[in-house]
Amino acid sequence: AQIESEIMAAGEHFDACAWLNAEIAERLARSAGASDGGAGAAANGGSDVAVDAEILDFLGELEVKLQLKADDLDASVEEVARAAHERLPLARQELGTLQEKAGALRKQILQMVEGIGKTQSAVGYTLGNIQVMDRVQSNMRRARDALGEAAGMAQLLATVEQTFKQGDLTTIGRQLKQIREGLESVSGVPEFAGVETKLHEFEERLQQMVQAPLQKAFEDHDAKSVKHLSSILVLSNKNDTIGTLFVSAKISKLQSSWETFSPMQGLGVGKNASAGDDATPKVVSFEGWLPEWLRSVLAVVEAEHKWCLEVLPGEADALFMTLIETCFISIKQSFKNRLQNTLSAAKLAHDAGDSPVSPLQVLVAVKTCLKDFLGSVTTMLGRSGAREQGRGKLLECLALCTYGQIKDQVLLYPLLERQEISGSYNKLSGDLQLRTTKLKQAAHSSSGRVADSIEACTSAIHGLIGPLCKVGEAAAQRCLKITDGFKVDELLAVVDECLVAVMSKVSFSLKVIQDCAKEAAVKASAAGQDADAAYKQDGLPEDILVAILRVLQVAALFSASIGGLEEALGASVASLGSKSWELQSDIGVWFTLFPGQREEHVGKLAGFAGSSLLPSSQRSVKDFAEAAEGLVLDFMMIKVRESLLGLKESKLWCRAEGKDTTFDLPSFSVFPSKHVTSLGEYLLVVPQQFEVLDDLEEVGSRLQSEEEQRGEGSEQSSFAAEWISKIVEEAAKLYTRDILKIPRLNETGCSQLQADIDYLCNILQALFVTVPPALSTVASNLSLSNEEIKDPEKRNKDCDNAAWDRMVKMRGAAEKGAAKE
């Protein structure tokens, strides 16, 4: 039984060999355990024989068991096969019976499906008949209703005329409403073809009967009559007439207040009136009168709105906005004429200097009071609890009719701004033009007068910088106040163009300064040769030098100020990107007044990102700064060029030094030449000349603030120190250029040049200026002999190759000349 259970448990995966080996191993393990527990184990040979005999017995027993089990299985299989064979005929018979029953059932199902199809057709026919009967019944019902309505319509038409004669307005309104509702039912009846025309006639008669008393009721604030008469108009479908009559009753008061404006008005009694001024007229500007008129309009419409909320709450907001809209539409042309006349008068007075108020200031004042009025009305509607959708539509109409009053002026805003900025810039640059003219006249005078004229010009330019930027910033604020940023792109173009025009005048003044400085320098050189005491030893007039150095500060301040103006304008442009452009916003109104401008405006704002807002002005300022730096460098290099005059033609570089061989005398050190000594003395004086720049801290503060904004270090760098280094470096470059033009350089000349360069390098070190690479290369070359410089390995990798090659050529030419001699 155990063997059978193990084979059945293995199933299809039974492995006979593995099972047999496992049984043998288990039997061996039991035998080994039994032999270990005996009283003293026998010899190993005897133990193995016993185990083998036991295994053979086990295998024999197992073989007998398996054989018996196999015989039992064969017998069982034969018995099962015999029983199955006996059942086959009966199974065939049962299968045939089942097939016959299935065929009969199939026939029955087909017959049932056929019957259902016939029944469905009959039902469909019956349903069709039922639907036809239903339509006939519906038509008969409608016909009955139409006949009833026709009878009622005929009766109403017969009695409505009598009701008109009786003057019962409420009954008339109710009857007309019934006629209008029943009109559709009898529209196809020939007898009632003219009913619609009669209905319109009746409604017009009713409107004429109600119109006068309702308007009178509005004028008298008769709430009871207004409610009664308005309900009659609502019954007769004349809702619009209510608004028309309300406006007609109230508009005359607003229009009459508008007509009270006159440029010449009495002072009246007030805190600004004195006892004897009651009859004294004064000029009242339109922009000064308009806010008071708008406040009076707001007071009137607010009172009417409160009254309407109590009497006609459903129509209050619509009546309120209709009144305001009608008021502004009625004064539209008069408003434009008054505003245009005011702007023209303001321009004439402003240009003549009689008034400080410019046309754009007038426009700002008008736009501001319109904006305040719009804001007050918006707040009022918000308090009334108007629905969001309806309130948005009302505000749209209000914004269009208020801002529409200055639509033409907004279109002309860039032109007005150009006139405003150009006029301001022309006034600011007037003093500079006068100073420039005086400088041209003083060009042939003494150095003192020329210096004073140059100083006056630079002071005029310096005084021009701050006001120029303030005008630009004020223009940006005006643009935001008048157009809400709608015209910001055109404003930037105008500011850029006007700044370029001013910079052209400033550049012309700088050109005049440059011409006068050159002429003064020529005179200084001639005077220096004649030992005139009016000029200093360095050959430059001290007063002119101070005036010239002032130009540097002006140029740096100009660059910093224009950069600050551009940042301010950039902040204004950036603020527009964060604003809502819906209709309720200020700029959204302009997009509604000028359709199709929104996408273009968005594209222009996007184009400003990462680009210069004043590109032409920045180029002009850069050109001015470069011209100013060039002027100072040229002026400061005059003495340098005089010191180096004749340097390359000097005989010091090829001088033959004869040596007495009789006695072994020592060689004395070589002294620096007069050229480099004069240059060094001048360079040591340069810092003293630049001390004039330390009395103005404006440039340094501007540059320091810019460095802090860029996140750079806070190291203090003197503007004067930077320019001292720049001039000394330029002088060193000129010296290097001239010594590299020496034709020949012998050994004596090398010693002389080495002494000169050592002297100049000490000067540069004292002034904290780095030695130029070319000059360092020359010094390195001079430290080598003629044979060593021919060795490529002696050349420093960081040297200036052009300077090294030139030194080799100069020294080689000297050797060739000595060989020929």
Short description:
The chain is mainly alpha-helical. The protein has 26 helices and 2 strands. Residues 39-43, 265-281, 530-539, 659-668 and 712-716 have low confidence and may be disordered.
Tell me what the structure shows.
By secondary structure, the protein is an all-alpha fold. The protein is built from 26 helices and 2 strands. The protein has helices at residues 2-10, 16-36, 44-166, 169-182, 195-220, 223-235, 239-258, 286-311, 316-330, 332-352, 359-384, 388-403, 407-411, 413-441, 447-483, 488-529, 542-577, 586-593, 597-608, 615-643, 674-689, 698-709, 719-739, 747-766, 773-782, 801-820; strands at residues 264-266, 281-283. The chain has a two-stranded antiparallel ribbon with strand order 1-2. Helix 10 (332-352) packs antiparallel against helix 11 (359-384). The longest helix is centred in the N-terminal third of the chain and has 123 residues, at 44-166. Residues 39-43, 265-281, 530-539, 659-668 and 712-716 have low confidence and may be disordered.
Overall pLDDT confidence: 78
Oligomerization status of the protein chains: single chain
Return residue spans where pLDDT drops below 50 for at least 5 consecutive residues: 39-43, 265-281, 530-539, 659-668, 712-716
Main sheet overview: 2 strands, antiparallel
Main β-sheet, spatial strand arrangement? 1-2
Alpha carbon gap, first and last residue: 136 Å
Number of strands: 2
Order of helices and strands: HHHHHHHEEHHHHHHHHHHHHHHHHHHH
Tally the helices: what do you get? Answer: 26
What shape does the CA trace take? Answer: flat
What portion of residues is helical? over 70%
Percent strand equals under 5%
What structural class results from the helix and strand content? mainly alpha
Radius of gyration: 57 Å
